[in-house]
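FORM 7B: Structural annotation worksheet

SECTION A. Query
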Amino acid sequence: MRLSNVPSWRLEVGGAQVLDMALFLRDVAQLIVPQAEDAPSGQVARSAGDAGAVPASGPAGYPLNADDRRTVGADWLRWWRELVRFEADPEPTHDPESVPESAASAARSPGARWRRRQARQENVFDPPTFAALEPWPHLRRLAALGFTDARDWSNQASQAPAGTNSPALVSWDLINEVVAATMSDHHLAPDQIHGKLIVLNVTDDWSHRPRPGIALCSLSVAHDPATVSTLLRDTLAPGNHQ
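SECTION B. Predicted structure
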């Protein structure tokens, strides 16, 4: 993810591989997912910015009939919501008064933060066996069979020139304008601005704000300056979510 930090406000903009891979699995298996505002209905693109969808052939050796696709689709939506919570929830913090300074410093190191994130991720997304999906055996098998294709697609798509990890995804000037306007409109100090925009490699215009300070959107929303500016301002506004 790209990190903007000048000097004490913080806004992350970029992709989320686990979410993109879950969407890929949904589409290649042609899952019939209940309509929900918190999940994009647009299909994943063959490559970043491409309007075409991934061919829906399904993982080899795991055919699904219509009833299966509907049942697994409902399970997929439950899994999707767990994945979004993982990406959206802040990292648990420690009481500084109960932790020695040396231990607190070590806990803030990049390596320690990465290990904590990996431990949290394994509760919802743990290839190659996907034991976290044990309550949903058909979805677990689908994830295990399709994981390699999903990972390869996600790696390629996110690194494309217009992909979710592109430095040009949302311009620095636009970010600065949004932060300045948010501070002015809501009388906030710079260190009160903390946010995260997760851009998904899906077609169609879509966005969702799972909690204050966090937004998800499609590539087309991220690439439209007026739309993404409004989304960011709504996301960074205190107590605002949808």
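SECTION C. Observations
The first helix runs from residue 17 to 28. The first strand starts at residue 2 and ends at 5.

SECTION D. Sign-off
Analyst initials: ____
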